[in-house]
């Protein structure tokens, strides 16, 4: 029996089709069974007694199995209780009215339980960044394995529409990148929080290098990319502003990616 796709893959993207297909199958089956029971037994004299022998346990077992499959534990328990009551109905018959009311109660509970599970829609463009270990490229992964978590989470937060959270993870990536860059140039930046001061120290160190050396050119390019990140942050200090839009987060992803890719060629 197929499990709910969101329980088989918790905290992973599930396609709209998979959700619809699974949920529709569950509710169609439940509705079909309940409909047949209501038509067969709920009509007529409300006080007329029906016995458990008249009700096929197999039909209720189908509903119970589907509820269990979908994680609707309360609904499954109510179906099991009704099955137990109907099993005893040979000696204590149930009225049509009570049987119909029990079905209505179960149906309402199914709707309530299904309404308690929330699902987020992520459009296909943002979904492309979800769970992407290679978001910044293989070279960045190889050179900076400690930023892997934040690279993936930056993409995940962007997919989820959380712009400020994206920036938080990009900040953690940049903190490591800037430290590595400074170490490469012999500049200590451990306690520095001001972007301009960082750039001044980096550029000062680069100017002391042989101007025509290819490595110096590469260092200068990385410094230019660091300046681009500073502009994208729109803040003189290393700590970003309070909130960021998705558009700003998207720009920062691209800028930080460029800097980290450049840095990967240096270290």
Can you give a write-up of this model?
The chain has 267 residues and is an all-alpha fold. The protein has 2 domains: 5-116, Four Helix Bundle (Hemerythrin (Met), subunit A); 124-266, no CATH class. It is 67% helix and 1% strand. The chain has 12 helices and 2 strands; from the N terminus they run ααβααβαααααααα. The protein has helices at 5-8, 16-42, 57-69, 73-87, 96-116, 124-127, 138-143, 148-159, 163-185, 195-207, 214-233, 246-266, and strands at 49-50, 94-95. The protein has a two-stranded antiparallel sheet with strand order 1-2. It is rod-shaped, with a radius of gyration of 31 Å.
DSSP summary: helix tally: 12
What is the CA–CA distance across the termini? 52 Å
Q: How many structural domains can be distinguished in the coordinates? A: 2
Q: Which whole number gives the mean pLDDT?
A: 83
Helix fraction by DSSP (H/I, runs of at least 4): 55-70%
Order of helices and strands: HHEHHEHHHHHHHH
Using the alpha-carbon principal axes, give the shape.
rod-shaped
List low-pLDDT spans.
none
Query: Strand fraction band?
Result: under 5%
Number of strands: 2
Main-sheet strand order equals: 1-2
From the alpha-carbon coordinates, what is the Rg to the nearest angstrom? Answer: 31 Å
Largest sheet, if any?
2 strands, antiparallel
Structural category is mainly alpha
